[in-house]
Amino acid sequence: MRRNGRLGKALVLAVLLGLTMTACFGTAGSSAGGGKPVVFSNTGGALEKLFKQNAYADLSRKGITVSTESPNNEAKLTAMVRGSKPTWDVYYSTPYAAMAKCGTLFEKIDYSRIHTGGLDKSQMTDCGVPVLNSYFVLVYNKDTYKSHPPRSWADFYDTKKFPGTRGVMNFAKDAGMETALLAGGVPADKLYPLDYDKAFATLDKIRKNTRFYDTGAQQTQALQSGEVDMMLAWPGRAYDAVKNGANLGVVFNQPIKYHDVLTIVKGAPHQDQAYALINSLIGTKNQKAVVDQQPYGAANSKAGKTSDAAIGAFVADDTKAKGTVVVRDNAWWAKNLDEATRRWTKWVNG
């Protein structure tokens, strides 16, 4: 026990040292050039490249330099804020984290400084500004199922009628429990609060056939290589796999709608520039660039939809879903994330 205590203290010192080094020497992925700085912690990947080409470039012309760091690690953010020395200004977040940590990890948003035209007011919260819409969808290998493809979450959880390997992200938040309940016959409007026991009873049916993944890159690789036959997928990662040769189909029956938000870190040192960055990211130009090149929906309705059929094939909407879209209850997740995560982890490791 004493040894574990020493290790714990050592880890804390290591984190604090890392934060000090970051504060002194800057963040990874910094944009070139001078000007007023703002530091953005985000998910990286394809979205980061689009942000750099559009939002960051526009800010650079206004004298604001964007530095970036990924992945957007909440543990590191928490250590920064608790140490009263945050080096990040804007943090790419889930809406429920922004709700749960509003006022502790995140500043309350002054919406008089936000260009809210085109935004969905129901997605605007005290500490979170919507930036992206998407859906969890069922993706399958066409070569595996040929003329008998899955058509519902019930099919995803039925390994007798639809044999094969499943892929699921190893996080409670990534819709494993919701889709299991839908597969078990729970009506979409009765989904929350989640019935853990019923969800895991359905998840047990695919436990031996399931591979769990921790990153989007792993998800893409599993789909691309044929390692899994079906995936509870992020559409962007499925689209990437198709670009690399995967032969995939998408089921739009009961897609789980979610959105991401932008937050300002509590005590952020560059708050004026943080507002400028948020406005640039939710602006029509940047939002249009995202939907034109990735299978996501814009948070800003003025950006419209993609005209690229290959991208559109992975974008869920009410028309494709025929009225079956299920909207995630972010208020429930804000209150229950820790318990849901504990239950999920116990099941995965059980």
Give an overview in words.
This protein is of the alpha/beta class. It has two domains: 175 residues, 3-Layer(aba) Sandwich (D-Maltodextrin-Binding Protein, domain 2), CATH 3.40.190; 159 residues, 3-Layer(aba) Sandwich (D-Maltodextrin-Binding Protein, domain 2). 42% of the residues lie in helices and 18% in strands. Strands 1, 2, 3, 4, 5, 6, 7, 8, 9 and 10 form a ten-stranded mixed beta sheet that branches. Helix 9 packs across helix 10. The longest helix has 24 residues. The N terminus is likely disordered.
CATH class of the largest domain: Alpha Beta
Q: From N to C, what is the helix and strand string? A: HEHEHEHEHHEHHEHEHEHHEHHEH
Total count of helical runs of at least 4 residues: 15
E-strand count: 10
Euclidean distance between termini CA atoms: 25 Å
The residue fraction in helices comes out at: 40-55%
Low-confidence stretches: 1-33
Give the overall shape, derived from the CA principal axes.
globular
| CATH architecture label of the largest domain | 3-Layer(aba) Sandwich
CATH level-4 homologous superfamily of the largest domain: Periplasmic binding protein-like II
Q: Structural class of the secondary structure composition? A: alpha/beta
% residues in beta strands: 15-25%
CATH topology title of the largest domain: D-Maltodextrin-Binding Protein, domain 2
Largest sheet descriptor: 10 strands, mixed
Rg, alpha carbons: 21 Å
The number of domains = 2
Mean of the pLDDT scores? 91
